[in-house]
């Protein structure tokens, strides 16, 4: 029993002495991580020496990005940027209603005229409203931007169904300084021909006298109720010329209140006759007022077809007349 306890103590003493390294063992180099053949570290490479000075540290310079000095650009270049950013083109409207893929496949969008500014809910919310945020940047940008934005065509009377019967069209809602910037007015006729809305007038409240820089009036005729197939639909006490005289009164009132007006452009919808009474009367009134008459592409094409048809009919009549059947003059000697 005593021998067993002595052996156990000797074993425990041996284990404790083996667990604690001696001073000689602590001074031995560590070769556990090296291979006996090559004495090259196999587990990890030695770390590079670290310098004790600031020469080994790379200097990191943080450069603060400066804002672009937009107003240092020439005024001509700034105006060009305003036009690209603020103008609403026919492509923008097509993308809004049909998507960018359909607009990319569409042909001739860049050749179409820009749509006029109007009380159009979708266009005003998605296209006009974001562009008006440029007015809030600063005073100088506001003074330059609103002159470019309101140089776009402006429709006199609203055409959208939601605002068709409104008491105040867009022109009457604009401040006088905005109306003074407008260069082109748009007049669309035909919608509501049986009962025109009350806002379609040339009263002083419309603000036409403030449009001192207007040079062009674009008139577009959608419907001509003087056609025979409108019989019975013109309304009570209305004749085939009632709407024609109404359109003439509007045109003459606009020309009277806007003395700076120089050019009147008249166009019709596709499918309408080129000699429609409303279009002919508007062209005659503009010419009599001393304005330059410009015919739209559809009206020109339609009248060209009418002239070509008349010339073809005349040639056919001349070809049907035979020289043998024509009377001949015989000289008789006395």
What labels would you give this structure?
334 residues; alpha/beta; 12 helices; globular
Fraction of residues in β-strands: 5-15%
Q: What's the number of extended β-strand segments?
A: 5
Low-confidence stretches: 6-10, 13-19, 31-43
Radius of gyration over all CA atoms, rounded: 44 Å
What does this structure look like?
The chain is α/β, with parallel strands linked by helices and 334 residues long. It contains twelve helices and five strands. It has helices at 2-19, 23-27, 75-86, 90-98, 100-105, 121-132, 139-149, 170-173, 176-179, 242-257, 277-288, 297-320; strands at 154-155, 184-189, 216-221, 263-268, 292-295. Strand 4 (263-268), helix 11 and strand 5 form a beta-alpha-beta unit. Helix 3 crosses helix 7 and helix 10 (242-257) runs parallel beside helix 11 (277-288). It is globular, with a radius of gyration of 44 Å.
């Amino acid at each position: 029993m005593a021998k067993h306890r002595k052996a156990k103590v000797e074993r425990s003493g041996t284990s404790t002495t083996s667990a604690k390294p001696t001073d000689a063992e602590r001074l031995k180099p560590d070769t556990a991580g090296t291979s006996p053949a090559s004495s090259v570290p196999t587990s990890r490479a030695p770390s590079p020496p670290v310098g004790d000075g600031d020469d080994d540290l790379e200097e990191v310079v943080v450069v603060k990005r400066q804002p672009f000095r937009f107003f240092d650009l020439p005024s001509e270049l700034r105006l060009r940027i305003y036009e690209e950013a603020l103008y609403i083109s026919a492509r923008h409207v097509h993308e809004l209603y049909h998507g960018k893929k359909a607009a990319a496949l569409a042909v001739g969008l860049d050749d179409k005229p820009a749509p006029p500014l109007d009380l159009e809910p979708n266009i005003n919310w998605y296209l006009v409203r974001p562009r008006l945020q440029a007015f809030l940047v600063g005073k100088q940008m506001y003074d330059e931007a609103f002159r470019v934005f309101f140089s776009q065509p402006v429709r006199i009377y609203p055409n959208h169904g939601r605002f068709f019967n409104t008491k105040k069209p867009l022109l009457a809602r604009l401040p006088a300084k905005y109306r003074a910037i407008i260069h082109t007015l748009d007049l669309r006729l035909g919608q509501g021909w049986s009962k025109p809305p009350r806002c379609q007038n040339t009263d002083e409240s419309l603000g036409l006298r403030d449009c001192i820089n207007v040079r062009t009036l674009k008139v577009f005729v959608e419907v001509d109720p003087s056609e025979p197939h409108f019989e019975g639909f013109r309304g009570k006490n209305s004749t085939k010329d009632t709407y024609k005289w109404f359109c003439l009164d509007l045109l003459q009132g606009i020309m009277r209140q806007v003395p700076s007006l120089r050019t009147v452009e008249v166009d019709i919808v596709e499918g309408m006759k080129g000699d429609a009474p409303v279009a002919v009367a508007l062209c005659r009134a503009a010419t009599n007022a001393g304005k330059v008459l410009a015919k739209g592409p559809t009206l020109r094409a339609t009248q060209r077809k009418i002239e070509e048809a008349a010339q073809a009919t005349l040639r056919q009549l001349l070809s049907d007349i035979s020289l043998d059947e024509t009377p001949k003059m015989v000289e008789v000697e006395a």
